[in-house]
Amino acid sequence: MRDHTKLRAFVLADEVAIFTYRETKNFPKQEEKGFTLLEVMVALVILIIGLMSVLSLVTSVIRGNAFSNKMTTATILAQDKMEELMALRFDTANDLTPNQHTDINNPINGLFRREWEVEDFGDCKRIDIEVGWQGIQRAHVVTLTTMLSGGDEL
Other CB atoms closer than 10 Å to residue 82's CB: what's the count? Predict the structure, then answer.
């Protein structure tokens, strides 16, 4: 009888297991909350690509602003020298003698080099002013040119 009871218990246990399996198999799956590892990795890759694009754009803007600042400074230095030379006397000023001239303050602001050349055409002089600086990859130059007359009228 003992063997029969054990056998009946195994049969009952099998029936319960089969019943439980059948019942749970037909239930709809519960909706899982959260993200899978793959979804998180894809989101991170997209985020990193976006951040790299923004970083590249910011770097380009900073480089462009720095170049514009140097170009503006060079132009102002050239204009200042042009105004200074135009205010000098036509015949007697040393800075207006026909020759290549170099600013005694070079390098200006530790970066810019200012030079000018004067050509004499008798009653007028041509003045070319160059302000240059060395960039990362190449040298940059701003050039201003004017004609200065020695008479009262042109």
Answer: 17
Buried b (16+ CB within 10 A) or exposed e, 112-125: bbbbbebeeeeeeb
Q: What kind and span of H or E run contains 80?
A: helix 37-86
CATH assignment of the domain containing 136: 3.30.1300
Query: Which secondary structure element, helix H or strand E, spans residue 120, and what is its range?
Result: strand 113-120
Distance CA 99, CA 103 (A): 13
Rounded distance, CA 150 to CA 122, Å?
A: 8
Is 64 inside any structural domain? yes
Q: How confident is the model at residue 115 (pLDDT cuts 50, 70, 90)?
A: very high
Strands ordered across the beta sheet of 113-120: 99-102, 113-120, 124-134, 139-149
pTM of the model: 0.66
pLDDT given at position 63: 92
